[in-house]
Design brief:
This protein has five helices and four strands, in the order ββααααββα. With about 130 residues, the chain is α+β, with helices and mostly antiparallel strands. The chain has a two-stranded antiparallel sheet. The chain starts with 14 loop residues before the first strand and ends with a helix.
């Protein structure tokens, strides 16, 4: 199939190794590049996969995984109140309830149970890599 001008050709190694049953293990760099090309507007995922010898359903699966997204992860703002402010009694309209705080980070779920204080929230800052 000819290059339709939408995407450049891959120049590095595509296959890391071929197993005895014929299954190919592709390099991470090739997968990342292919997903990046497939996410461009106007690119046919099926044609791109066919041109590079990859099953179109496999490429769509890689696109859903999101391991190879080039953009930085979106972080939500967290405000930590000073220790002095947390020791004051909360207004009557705000009730402090104990429960579970669940935060998903890169597919892993972090659970903090009970009342969450600023020391526990500071630990979350150390989890960023």
């Amino acid at each position: 199939m000819q290059n339709n001008g939408h995407t450049p050709e891959w120049s590095g190694p595509m296959v890391e190794r071929v197993m005895r049953n014929g299954k190919r293990l592709y390099t991470s760099a090739f997968k990342a590049w292919l997903v990046e090309q497939a996410n461009k507007p106007g690119v046919s995922v099926a044609a791109l996969a066919l041109r590079h010898g990859v099953n179109a359903n496999q490429l769509r699966h890689w696109m859903k995984l999101g391991h190879w997204q080039s953009g930085a992860p979106v972080l939500l703002p967290v405000t930590i109140v000073s220790e002095a402010a947390t020791t004051q009694a909360p207004p009557e309209s705000v009730s402090r309830a104990t429960g579970t705080l669940e935060i998903e980070i890169s597919g892993a779920i972090l659970r903090v149970q009970g009342q969450v204080d600023s020391a526990q929230l500071r630990l979350l800052g150390m989890l960023r890599a």
